[in-house]
Amino acid sequence: MIEIIVFIIIIAVVIKNSKKKSQPRQTPPFTAGQKKPLRRQKPEAPLPASSKADEPLESRTFIEPAKPYRPAYNAGERYEEWMPVPEGKRVCRCGYCGADNLIPKHSDPKNFTCYFCREEL
Question: Nearest CA to 95 among 61, 121, 77?
Answer without folding.
Answer: 121
